[in-house]
Amino acid sequence: MSVTLEHSVFAHLEPANVWAHFATLCAIPRASKNEGRLRDTLKAWAEGRGLLATVDAAGNLIIRKPASPGREGFPGMILQSHLDMVCQKNADSDHDFARDPIRPTLRDGWLIAEKTTLGADNGIGVALMLAALEDTHLLHGPLEALFTVDEEAGMGGARGLAAGALQGQLMLNLDTEEWGEFYLGCAGGLDVNVERVGESEPMPAEYCVARLSLRGLRGGHSGVDIHEERGNAIKLLVRVLHELAAKFPFRLAGLQGGSARNALPREASATIALPPGALAELPTWLGQMQAGLRLELSGVDEGLLLEALPDQATRVMALAEQEVWLASLHAAPHGVRRMSRQVPGVVETSNNLGMVDLQAHGGSCNFMVRSLLAEGGVALADEIVSLFALSRTRAEKSGYYPGWAPNPASPLLALCQAVYRRDFAAESKVQVIHAGLECGIIGAKYPGLDIVSFGPTIRGAHAPGESVDVLSVDRSWMLLKAILAAVG
Prior knowledge:
The protein is built from 11 helices and 23 strands. α1 crosses α3 (about 120-135), α5 crosses α7 (about 320-330) and α9 crosses α11 (about 470-485). About 50% of the residues are buried. It starts with 15 loop residues before the first helix and ends with a helix. It is α+β, with helices and mostly antiparallel strands. A hairpin with a 7-residue loop joins β22 (about 460) and β23. Helices cover about 30% and strands about 25% of the residues. The longest helix has 19 residues, at about 280-295. It folds into 2 domains: about 15-185 and about 405-485, Zn peptidases (Aminopeptidase); about 190-400, Alpha-Beta Plaits (2-Layer Sandwich), CATH 3.30.70.360.
């Protein structure tokens, strides 16, 4: 299991063993629910090294490595990361995530994917674990490496993990994105899935069809970046359509936006039919809207672009259906609902209108709700359900997963902090993250499991241009080795 590094972007990066494994991950497509090829490759690699490797009923891969000589009685350590990645690309990219390898470049100490996601979330964590499994000089007690599947699309692997599958007493999750910080808690969440079937009508006579597109937004992780108030392409385009309706009696033939529930939508488009003569006025009006939105998003998403191109359609939504969808999406919440009172500076409750797909005959949309408090997340989800209930539109809550409650008295945290202080001559920070981690689900299945999370610095996760700080990967490897050696 290796990729030739001699002439690749990874050739001179350190630590070489970690980057060699990450190069393999980049070479093998691994979208959520399609991790099988990568998992089978890793299983065969482990078995070739004489390690016990099993795949559970949920599709998770568990690899076990015996303790270093003399450490057989030490507390068992679980290392955990997820195999899948969020697959996002720019509209001008022809990358096929089902077939093509990720092709990163190196720039100013950062490894970056220019027009796609990089998969550093959580591929670097996976690479660190593989390096630990193959390092024969590493000092450690009994090791279990848990590679979960389907994390980005609903945490299916963690949900399906059997309660008796693991034996370790300690767990290091390697799925956080700020070097120098140890994470001790995370938000839980759930989805609201909306679906409505309606009536369509023939295209009005003499109407012209155009496709409005809104693009150029930064996007990002719906948990990590939600507080930055970046633009949501779906919400902004619906707002544009809301204002356009006051000027022209257009008809809606379709509306699409976003491609992942846990990514801030960067692009959205709508196919509309306009009365004769309106098409000529549209570019000027869109230019004015673009200027206004750019001003509003100044310093956050100034690259917003609005444009219209000729399109084709044969049917449109019935006017009553169009009004229901546009009014509901316009009124639907998005963004931060409340900041935490218990953990200053951390978002408590938020939601992301992440995907919409409307056709002339109806369609669907998805909201991902996150909260540090179970009650807060459910309450916000109920509000969304109630909003759509006003129009008798089907909206259902699903996929609830628990948060990870912080344990400031964690012995593993104290150990990690002491090792960091000793080896890096600095104090680390302890954080709670608004994004979802699998720690809450796994911890609920294994009461008493002592869990801490850390990782390298990653920027732009879940969006094209995702990057990872190369130096922080080296430091993460040094820290991982030191923590494993210190457990006793």
